[in-house]
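Morning run. Coffee first, then this:
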Amino acid sequence: MQRAKLTYDNFADQLVIEIPEFIHLYEDHKNYNDEVLPHVLLGDFVRFLYADISRSTIDPTHIRNQNMLVRSLDLMERAITSDDPALENLIGVSFVENLLPENGDEQAAYAFTVIRRLLGPKLRESLEQEM
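And here it is:
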C-alpha cells in the first residue's frame, strides 16, 4: 500500500488508495458532484463505515469490517495529526462530527460505540470536544 504524505489536496485520492473498498462510493460522489467535495465525501465515508459495521452484525460471515475499520481509523488519525491545518480541520469537522449518531438511530449508535473504542488519541480528543 502506498502511503503518501497527507495533505488536504491529496487526501481524497489517498483515501481510495488506502481504503479501496470505498472506490465505488467515491466514484458515485465524484460523478454526482462533477468534482470531489471533501467535506461531503467524509460524510459519505462515515455512512459507509456505519453500514459496514451494521452489516457485520447481521451477517456473521461478513469479516471485512474489522480490517477495513482499523485501516480507516489509522488513516484518519494520520490525517488529523498532519502538519496541514486544512486537513486537520477537514477531519475534525467532517469526519469526527459525522460520527455522532442521531438520537434514536440504534444501528448508528452501535457503530459509533465500535468506532469510538478504536479511535487514536487525537481523534478521541476531537470527538470528546464535540460531545
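The chain has seven helices and no strands. Good start to the day.
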